[in-house]
Amino acid sequence: MFELQHTDHPIVQRPRITVVGVGYLGATHAVCMAKLGFDVLGVDVDEAKIAELRSGRVPFFEPGLPEQLGEMLATGRLTFTTDLDEAARFGDVHFICVGTPQAEGSDAADLTFVDAAFDALVRRIDRKALLVGKSTVPVGTAERLTRMIAGRSPIGDELELAWNPEFLREGFAVEDTLHPDRLVFGVASEWAAGQLRALYRPLLERGTPLVVTDLATAELVKVAANSFLATKISYINAMAEVCEATGADVNRLAEALAFDDRIGGRFLKPGLGFGGGCLPKDIRAFMHRADELGVGQAVEFLREVDDINTRRRVRTVDLIRESAGGDLRGARVAALGAAFKPNSDDVRDAPALDVARMLYLEGAEVRIYDPEANENAHRAYPDLEFADSMDEALQDADVVALLTEWDEFTDADPEAVGARVGARRIVDGRDALDADAYRAAGWEVRALGRPGRRARVPARS
Ligand code: NAD
């Protein structure tokens, strides 16, 4: 059992909260903390983002969040600023939610934003307070920051650090924040643990499981969880590769595996694989950090997990090329989806967009449509062509590629879709369509890990 330092500092039962970095994670956290009844100040260096949030607009797509933001602004409990001096004065507890993207030219996490945010706050806070890291960071970061705080804070070790990793899923962010599967507190003192307990009391009273642990374990929980999820996705996608070579059907295989309680069906969904602002960069940063620590071999399997995931993108392009008759030059492809998953406008490392980019580079005329992510995708890839509606993307297409499984796409009527296109050929990159219904409507359907027309089990020699 790890030992917690004992101090006699009183716990602030209704602490004032700052949330530093109000992107996908921070904006949601700030709104939800206000929802729990706290006074919250959201802080960001991005003035445009703060102006939007102040005026009640969420700068990204997250179902339910705009309504909650409006409600919380109206209570007066939630405000936003770019002024760090104000934040330092305001908060009893400061949550740090800034980004930790993949570093340029390396697998490592870029900790520039974390270091800058901590440095700026630490120098300004002049009364007892708790800094709480929420960003996903390599194990050992909190220990380094603890030393930094002790060296730079005007109040020395009165300023404490805790780590409270976040597991929310984009698309379900509000629900996940208010009803998490578990809470994890990485702490060094009884006071920090007590302060976090007071803060999350409404959730704890509801029976939310709590793990109180040391800082390093708390940091690791998040990357370990993401590594596990990524592995499960790549596992079934590896099975899809085997299915493709044998004529077996990976969907039936996944269904049969899922009935085993020890395995379970969640994240056992074959398709184009994972992407987004977390899983890919988190597993890479984990491998990098493990290497630094001399235990790289322990997580070397994550390299294969990453490679399997990348191969799904290439394989999807292969299927689209095959559907187009073997040559993508001049082929009109309707790319349905750009976001890394439905119910999000996040295009960071999005498989859908990567596939569209590869098709474009091979000379296809790609028209992309995503219900929410067109704008972000266009910003990331200004050369690609975007349609304003699904119908516009489909118009006269030689091949349709389902790349993000939005309801708008999976609920579409194969007949109605067929009436738009030039040829009834579809590649289901997400194994999300009713292939029988499409075939019945005269479509040629190709899907990852499902038997194609020519698939068969080769005889053993
Ligand atoms: P994001 O890029 O959407 O938001 C980061 C925000 O931090 C931006 O608004 C940026 O302007 C701001 N920022 C940068 N430097 C700052 C500074 N010095 N002071 C104040 N603000 C600053 O990123 P995100 O998706 O919200 O992710 C943030 C962290 O949370 C990452 O470590 C990520 O891995 C982790 N996380 C994200 C999710 C998710 O679903 N997005 C879930 C769990 C954990």
What does this structure look like?
There is one protein chain. The chain is α/β, with parallel strands linked by helices and 461 residues long. The chain has two domains: 17-213, NAD(P)-binding Rossmann-like Domain (Rossmann fold, 3-Layer(aba) Sandwich); 232-447, NAD(P)-binding Rossmann-like Domain (Rossmann fold, 3-Layer(aba) Sandwich), CATH 3.40.50.720. The protein contains 19 helices and 14 strands. It has helices at 24-35, 47-54, 65-75, 84-90, 112-124, 141-152, 173-178, 190-199, 201-205, 215-246, 250-258, 279-292, 301-323, 351-361, 374-380, 390-394, 407-410, 414-420, 435-440, and strands spanning 17-20, 40-43, 78-81, 93-96, 129-133, 159-163, 183-186, 210-213, 332-336, 365-369, 385-386, 399-402, 425-428, 444-447. The strands form three sheets. Strands 3-2-1-4-5-6 form a six-stranded parallel beta sheet, sandwiched between helices. A six-stranded parallel beta sheet has the order 11-10-9-12-13-14. Helix 10 packs across helix 11. The longest helix is centred in the middle third of the chain and has 32 residues, at 215-246. The protein starts with 16 loop residues before the first strand and ends in a 14-residue tail after the last strand. Residues 453-457 have low confidence and may be disordered. Nicotinamide-adenine-dinucleotide binds next to helix 1 and helix 5.
Tally of DSSP helical segments: 19
Radius of gyration: 24 Å
CATH architecture of the largest domain: 3-Layer(aba) Sandwich
Give the averaged pLDDT, no decimals.
96
CATH class of the largest domain equals Alpha Beta
How large a portion of the residues is in β-strands, by DSSP E?
5-15%
Number of strands: 14
CATH topology name of the largest domain, in short, is Rossmann fold
- How widely separated are the two ends? 58 Å
